[in-house]
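Title: Prediction job returns without error message
Component: structure pipeline
Severity: low
Priority: P3
Assignee: unassigned

Description:
Job completed but the reporter wants confirmation the result is attached to the right record. Sequence as submitted:
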Amino acid sequence: MDVQLFQTKTDLGKAAAATGANAIRAAIEAQGRANIVVATGASQFEILEALVSDPTIDWSKVTGFHLDEYIGMPDTHPASFRRYLRERFTSKLPALGGFHFIHGDAADLDAELKRVSDAIMAHPIDVTFAGIGENGHLAFNDPPADFDTEKPYIVVSLDEKCRRQQFGEGWFPTFADVPETAISMSVRQIMKSKLLVLSVPDARKADAVREALEGPVTNMCPASIVQQHPACRIFLDPDSASKLSETFRAGISAR
């Protein structure tokens, strides 16, 4: 687990994107293609902007997946993650080799789970871009997360703290409008990625960052599982790192 500290969200996002871009280029060079997972949410704005502006990536050789989507939400809704990714990622990369969206409003959810699960099992992931939620979640795996299932995508229930984060970030007009269920990439599937790039800015994430990086590995803080990943790069800013112990902070690479 390599943790780096940046003074601004812009610098954090650019550095995280550069780390992921290096891995994408290396995968293309080694195997002719790269498979990536792209996250959504406020923590990913700067990363996606930097990624789509990188002229050194042959996007025609890249296949993408995304982490999660609300159940029952059409892709026209302002909070839809499919809409988010089309606006900020896929529409800006016309040469992209492919992208597997999760259709949370599919009439047959079991069939949709099988479709996206089969697709990702056929595309071993080289890089996963993600964040850590205010409740310590990884993707939409809220506590207590399922650390055991081997299913690539699962149906999950969203806890109140997770839903309040979505409301607080301005995606919904009222808290009551935030869905209670979603399709999420499972914890074990996320951990199969060769590289994890986690971007976690803002003071509201400080408690979760401390628990995930310094606490025990527990499904009550799902992101703590990344302590066991062989290649996890974590990007913080001063606010998100503010509750880490002095001992831990001493080992962080400040930029």
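Comment from assignee: result matches the submitted record. Residues 2-254 form a domain with the Rossmann fold fold (CATH 3.40.50.1360).
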